[in-house]
Model the fold of this input.
Amino acid sequence: MSVLIDAKTKSITKAAKIKQFETLNESAVTKKSLDNVKAEDGKNQTHLNGTYVVHDAKITLQDGGVVKCQVLVSNDPGKKTLRNVKYVSVLQAVSDKATGTWYCYTAEYDTPAPDEPVLQGTWRAVKGPGSPKTDERAKNNKFVVKGDKMTMIDSNPDQNNTKEGTVKLDPKTKAFDWTDEKNGWIGIYELKGDDFKFYAVPRIVDPKVKQPKRPMSFDDKGGGEQLFVLKREKP
Done:
């Protein structure tokens, strides 16, 4: 999806580092057509010709600054947050018979998955990977989910550490991702009421090392899979 910002917008400069867009209204303000779209070097960008949806938006910059203005998006995301924002280029385009300058970014929808809200809370591990002995160790692990953050607290005497990462569930594919800057897990999950389990392999961040394959079922045995079975703790 492409997101365009009028270059006349205050506080947004060329290649401004944007963290996210947040649309502020349920429905589009209006629509605007752009034609004869060209890049800064004058090359035609015909794939960007067309009708854009105009939204009132809150733009959060990487430095923490916030700008409220209208943005043009290539299709209507409704009331959603747009993340993974990447600067593309400066564009020239004709709209309403006038030529304007636009800063072009790409972004992705960030629609909360249906399963995510019910994942919120504290979960106690009741089973860990390996032998029955590891189940006893697993009982000293708990996972706290707040928003899109999952924190693992290991209170085993020889560990006693805390690890936080971003959790993402895909209710369609049942994909489970838990990542931080160094590692994490990729796998699949099952969520039924107060019972949650995930079956995953360690995530590899070194680009020189081949990433292990995500298990597609709880019976996959490609190597390195770990099964965690969790039970929600009552408030």
About this structure: The chain has two helices and 15 strands.
